[in-house]
Structures are given as C-alpha cells and as structure tokens.
Sequence to fold (867 residues):
Amino acid sequence: MNMDNILNFLKNVFTTNEEKFSITSAEGMSEKTSIKVFTDMEENLKTIKNYFSSPLNSDIKIREFMTCGRKSFAVFIENLVNSELLNTHILAPLILLKKDAGSEDITKTLIVHNQVSTQTEFEKILLSVNMGDCALFIDGFDKCIICDVKFWVRRGVEPPVSEAVIYGPHEGFNENFKTNTALIRKIVRNENMICETVNVGNVSKTPCALIYMKNITDENTVNEIRHRLNNIDSDYIFQLGELEQYIEDSNYSLVPQFLTTERPDKAASELIEGKIVLILQGSPFALIAPVTAGEFITTVEDDYIRFPFANLIKVIRIIGIIMSFLLSGLYVATVNFHHEMIPTSLLFAIEASRNAVPLSAFGEILLMEIAFDIIREASIRVPSSIGSTLGIIGGLIIGQAAVEAKLVSPIAIIIVAAVGIGSFATPNYGFNMALRFSRYIYLILGATAGFFGITLGLVISAYILSHIKSLGVPLLSGTGSKSEDNFTGMFFKAPVWKREIRHKYLHAKQERTQAKISRKWVEPK
Amino acid sequence: MTCNKIGTLELTFLFVNLICNKFFLFAPEYFRATAGSGTGIMICLMFLLMFAVWSFYKRRNITKTSFGKMGSIFLIAVFIFSVALTLRQYTETVKVISLTQASLYFIEGIFIIAMITGAYSGIKGICKAHIFYAPLIFAVMLILIVSASGKLDFYMLTPVFGNGIQSIATNALFLLSTFLEFTLFFTLKPFSKDEKSFIRAGNLTLLISFAVIMIITLCYIASFSENASVEKYPPVFQIIRLINSGAYFQRFDSLFLIAFSLSAYLYLGAMLFLIWHLFKNAFEIEGKNAVLMPFAFIIISTSFINALSDVITASIKHVDVFLWAIPVLMPLLLIKKGNKIQ
Fold:
C-alpha cells in the first residue's frame, strides 16, 4: 500500500457512510472526488456496491472473475453496454490470462478494444459507468480500467420532422449525441472543426458538444459560451430547451436567442459561417448562436434553390409572418375604429354577416384564436392516427357549425384561417411561439385604440428587439447603416457565388468565404 | 462584442423625423400663412441659411460640456416646453382624426407610454426603431400625397414670390426655429462612428428634410386655397382625405394615422432621451436613467395644462420670433474656443 492509499483508507475510516455516499448535491460530488480507488479489491467492491445500491439496483451488473491470478470485477449497466463487445473483447481475454501482468500491460497489450483509459477517482468512474462504460477493478491495482462499450438504444437517422425540404438531404438529428456530432463531421470533413465535450448538470452530467471551427469562429464568442456552460450550477439538465434558458442573454424575452435546427446540413453551414453549434445528449436538435433576427425567417432550402426564387419565397414568408401576428389586430381595429377605410358596400356586407352574432368583433376573433390554438395544441398531443380526424372535426366545428349557429361571422373565420396559415409559414418554432404570443397583444391593442394602439405595439417591439442579444450580438445586427453590416444580406439572399464575406457581427477570423471571383471558368483564358 | 456607435443612416433618420415631424401637424399651414404661394422660395432660402449654419459648425470640436450648465438648462427648458406643446398637439390631433370618443387622458397616456419606453431604451433602441420605421413613415406619407396629385392644382403655387420678397426673407430667418431639434444633433457627435460619418449624416439630414418639407408643403398649398382649409385637421391628413378609390379600401385616412402615430411615438421617445442626455452631460451625471422620470413628469404635467391650446396658438405667433436664434446661435456655446478640427 502506498502513502496515498493509506491516507485514503484513514480518511474513509473516519468518514461516516452517510457523508461518504451522498451523491445528490454538489457538495456530495466534491466528497466523492476525494475518494480514490483502493488497491484492495474488496474495499473497491464494497464502495461500488454502496454507490450503486447493489443488489437493490437491479440493472447494475457486477461480474466477479479472476485474471492473472487476482480477484477482479467488472461493473456496468445492463442495456447501456454492448454485451457482445464486453464478452469477447474484454472479459474473455482477461479471464483467459493466467500469468501476472500490470495495469499498463493489460490496457496496452491485452484488451483488444479501441477505447480504454484508466481512472483513479470514483466520481469519474461512476460517471463513466452511468454513461454506459464498463469499469474493471483488479486486486492490487490502484487504478480502474474504463472500457468504452456504450450501446445506447436509439432511433436511426430519420428525415427531420419540422424542417422538411424538397431540395437537400433528408437526414435529421436523433437523440444520440455521438450520432449527431458524427453527422455534422461527415458534412464538414475538416480537421479544424473542434468538438469539445462539456458535461452540464451537477448530477445529470449530460454531455454537451460545443462545436466550432478553430480557424473561423471568433475566440471570444467560444470562450463566452464555454464560460456559460461551465458555470451552470444546476443538478439536472436533460434537454436543449432547458440548456438554452440557462445560457441565453435575455431571460424574459419572447424572441429566442438561439436558432434550433434538426438538420445536420444547416448546423454544418452555420459552423462554416463562423457560428457555434451545441448538441446535447438526448435532444434531437442543435442550438446555433450567435444569430440575428433575419435568420429566424430563413430556411436551409433558401441556400439550395436559385436566389430569385429564394428571395421571392422569403418575401412571401415575411408577408405570412406579418399576417400571423398583425392581421387579427388590424381587422378588429378596422371594424371598431376605422370604418371609413372600407367601401360602403363591403362594410354593409361585413356588418350584415355580423348582425346576428352576439359577440363583438374583438370577442369573436379572440374566441376563434383561442379555439384555433386549442386545436393546434390538441393535434400535437393526440396520436398521429387520429390527428387528421381531429383536424376535420375542428375544421367543421370552427368553420361551418360555428357560422351556422351564428356564434361567429364568416369574415372572422377567414381572418383566423389567414392568421393560422401565416403562422405556419414561420420556419422557426421558437419564433413562431413568440409571434403567437404577440398576436394576442396586438389584438388587445387593436381593440383598445385601433391603429393608434397597434403602432404603439410596433414601436415598443422595435425598442425591445433592439436590446435583445444572442451571445452578445444584437438580434437586430445588420439592420443599420451599410458600414455596420449588409442589410440586404440579413433578409435577402445574393447568388451563391456572390456570398463572399461573412457577417461582420460574427467577427470571424477569416472574413472571406470564397475568392472575389469564385467562378474562375468565366475568366478569359 | 458590439459597440455603441451610431451609423450614418441611423443618425440621419433620427433627425429627419425630429425635424419633419411637425409637418405632419400644422407646420405647412403656418408656412403658407407666412409666405403664401411663395412658400417654396422661402423653404429654399431657409435651407440655404441652415446649410450655411451647419457648414459653419460641422467641423468644430464640440465637447459634451461645452454648453455650460446655464446654456444647458436654458436649452432643456426650451425643449421641455416644445415637447409638451407637441405632445398636446398630437393628443388633440388624434382625438380629432380618429379616437373621437376617447378622452384626452387616454390618448395622451398612450403617447406617454411610448415616450417613456423610447427614452428608457436608449440611443441604440431609438436609432434602431428609426431605421425601421422612419423610411416607412416617409414612404407612406409621400406615396399617399403623390396619390392625391390628381387633385392638386399647381396654379395655386403662383405667384412664386407670394407675399413678397421681404416677407419671404424675414420669415425664412424666423422659421429657422423649424430646425430647433437639429441643435441636439451636435450632442450626439460622441456616438457617431467618425467625423466623416457625422458630417455625412448632417448633410443627409438637411437634404432629406428639405425634400420632405418641400413636397408636403407645396402639395398642401396646391390642394387647398387659403380659405378652403378651415377644418381643424392637419394639412397632410386633409390631402390624404382627397383620395377615394378601390374596391377593398376606399379611403386612406387611417394610413395617415399609422404613419403619424409612429412618427409621434419615435419623436417623443427620442426627445425625452435627448433632453435627459443633455442634462446628464451638463451636470456630468454618471448614473443611468435615474433622472429620466422627473423630466417625463414635467413634460406630462405641462402638456396637461388646460389652457395649453391657447398657449399653442400664442406660441406659434410669438415664440418663433426668437426661437430661430437657438439653432443658429446656440451651437456657439458648444464650441471650445479656437478648437477646429483639421
């Protein structure tokens, strides 16, 4: 026994079991850090059993065996490891080994597995086992051998659900962290792509990949996000949506400050642009930052189709987005305050249709908006097999039946339908939620003070938006003078061969994405 | 990662709105009353004078303390009075053109919300809001005015010297008070990216303002003879009321309300911020927005004075007689002696 082990032993003797094995708090973690692997196998076995509450914990497997004449055991979690790999590449060679060997010999010459490491601290060993690794303890060794034999149950790579495209790949992220990073690396194929792993959550230790281009991305931005990730003092973080709320700049903002995507090609193209991508184990999405407002109305397909069509579609999308949050408010404002806009004959037609309706224009639009949102919410939760049925029932109730029962006027149905269609044109789900929320605000403003109230909402929105930042970059970057950034570049697409310069707000190490004349073949020979 | 500097366009649109805003109220009517059909010549003369003033000052080194405490207090008092009058005018105008059933307090309350929010959002927020909405405001106004061009009688612009050369020349000087807000342009020099950007923004501001004021005023003069426009509607609103078309939209008065209220909200927010900025610089206050609310309360209280309508009428007649001196002479206080940028 060397001196460290003696000290460890004494420390363990004078520490109560309660203190030793408390693992639910940050303090508990530091307690575990202090415990190192013993050379005595029995002591290690006892410690492991205590930590994992074995045999109470039925999926924790401890396999005891003899190797090189020493008592040994392997600890792993059933169904998180690849059993075949564990049996044939790790346990079999060890059990068959008869002559004595050191830990170095075992890791370097005996275990025919590609990812083997040694650990001395129990905290790291527990983390590895929880992640699906196998930990080997051999009597007389003061180190534990960790073999990466993870086999997480997962979905295959399937087409993205919320970002389907016609042109472009049909691969989407899944819940597996390693699959997702591999999907990005498969596209980028460059050694400058750095994929750092940061564990978030004091207890959950959820692996989070911080991905960026070493030769392009601004170091300050990378340091900032690394700093934020390393300074989250929370026990459990399981999803990117949670992580996003821990690291965003403006917590009370309606508008998201990170772009979410389930497309590896989108994540890869943003990386090349000089942005940062975050991937979290268990989330089939990636977070992208820093972003500007224009990117919430951009789809990856805009890059794949020819620029006139991309810009036309974008203009139509912008109209849809404006409709989605303003139209219902504008309708109520017009009906209540600004009749003079509408020609008399049309006004009579509208009033005639509303004549038997008991509700005011505001009341019926509000009712319909809420009903529409309920149907939308319900259609997400119900099984897909009855989703279409729900749509038909909702359509019939909201449409025909409500009009025939004189609950709402036909014009209100048209307005709410147009608003709904407009909201589906919003490519980003988080941004769509912000628009849904603001739609109610504009509706109230329109009902209260007509266009006068709606313009108040527009001005205050601009003030608020001007203060929102994504990783320190204002969301409205690029909307100022041309010297600050290119306004047209923010909202509209240039031809692919003209996209030469990266956005200035990214402070990229390499300003140019391509040569000034990228199509060399057009030059005279 | 980001700087607090303002670009040329932001600065330009901010001050174009501050200067031209009053032309959505009753300024064109007042201009016509002073120079008659010679208003066009008078506006040209005014701009030549203003360009001369601007050219004189634009390369001077202007520091934040140059106003001096007394100078700043005087300017702040003038601006507070001016903003309070404008706020009251906005409120009455909205009541007349749209929210006829609403109380003045309700309408003014909405303006106050916009004013305080704007001032609290700071120079960056104000500039960003201007870059979004100011082009929209002027585009909507000009398109609407041009749409009414079929109803305009350009013969009403003759005789070009209107009330006579002497009247034009005298009023061109007195009406330099139109550029009262331009005095504050100098206080934003520290926010400007560089000297070149600052000067370009000043030139652009005056040029665009000239175009906007000229178009609005001349179109108004060409629309109504002096005796015909007796209604208490703003001139631009009266022009837009001439438009009558379309199967889906018959009249466009409400579009004027959108552009007008956007412009008013931006104006009030920006002015409250600039008044506070002036005060902060004069008294070297480091704290953030602590003194902003008292200014807001002073403006609101002033605008709530019941007799303010009479004050507005009186001020238009008498106050402008000396207000012209502020944009012309006040920047002198800003200049450090013998300090000229090479």
In short: Confidence is low (pLDDT under 50) at residues 336-342 of chain B.
